[in-house]
């Protein structure tokens, strides 16, 4: 709410770095439209891969993990859940599919926000309900010490703050208080500061960011996992969140660190989208390309397990087959045997 109030008072200037991001993203959006019209069938493998990465990464940021051998079943099957983690990963995937299907038809509203929370939290008692007790954001250290990093909006004020935030957001879009992506990032940041749910706020914020981007025509999250890129830059994400939240309650905060971080994530996603799209036009299998890209990202020695984590859609046997092909071509070298074998990229 407080960031959108700042925008309502008039945006006198935009930081230079923000302007550069907006310019780059506007150009990338134009290319995105060209690519998706040019080769829609070739993008299927990217959509499936992004779906898996998003469901895994967004939950893993919150410490929710599942057995790697179960990922395919959780994402594409109808599993009997072994634990709550599996239920939440499956629920997040279903929320992603809802957003991909409905896109801008799915309104930014209280019912939508509560529905997304209910989907990614499963059958827990307060799924889809605002917090009933005050919940602060706690930073934990390795020695088990803790500190309050940010005091969120109190439980009794949360419904009012959410209603006002949504009203401000709709006015911002209608009256064009700022470029659309700035409005989207401001809304996302205010949502995180309000922290309306007892748990699951981070995951809902990432689902909302995907939906907000769809509303403004930035569809890259359908093909590249925004959640995975956020996870890869997790420390920078938390730093930006902490920096921008100082004096938020007083409305005297500086939101640009968080806004720029979200634009940075989008820029990385579009860069990766263009690179992967170009490779999909080569006479190679798309999965083979994704495996080779995952290998190139490794530093030093790596195992088949490392690549399986990066490419869960490919399957272990397919990955092993590609390793054998790359080894025969002297692209990789193997040291040892079995699952513990260490591999090195030669060229």
Describe the structure.
The chain is mainly alpha-helical. The protein has two domains: 2-280, Orthogonal Bundle (Fic-like fold); 286-345, Arc Repressor Mutant, subunit A. The chain contains 15 helices and four strands. Strands 1-2 form a two-stranded antiparallel ribbon. It has a two-stranded antiparallel ribbon with strand order 3-4. Helix 8 packs across helix 12 (256-280). The protein starts with a helix and ends with a strand.
Q: In terms of topology, how is this protein built?
A:
Elements lengths: L1 H7 L7 H23 L5 H18 L9 H6 L7 H19 L7 H12 L15 E4 L5 E5 L7 H18 L4 H15 L6 H15 L10 H7 L1 H12 L10 H25 L5 H11 L7 H7 L5 H13 L3 E4 L6 E4 L2
Antiparallel strand pairs: 1-2, 3-4
Radius of gyration: 21 Å
Sheet bearing the most strands, described? 2 strands, antiparallel
List low-pLDDT spans: none
User: Which geometry do the CA atoms define?
Assistant: globular
CATH architecture assignment of the largest domain: Orthogonal Bundle
- Overall structural class, as computed from helix and strand content, comes to mainly alpha
- CATH names the topology of the largest domain as Fic-like fold
**Separation of the first and last Cα atoms:** 51 Å
Counting DSSP H or I runs of 4 or more residues, the number of helices is 15
CATH superfamily of the largest domain: Fido-like domain
From the structure above, extract its key features.
globular, two-stranded antiparallel sheet, Fic-like fold, mainly alpha, Arc Repressor Mutant, subunit A, single chain, 4 strands, 2 domains, 347 residues, two-stranded antiparallel ribbon
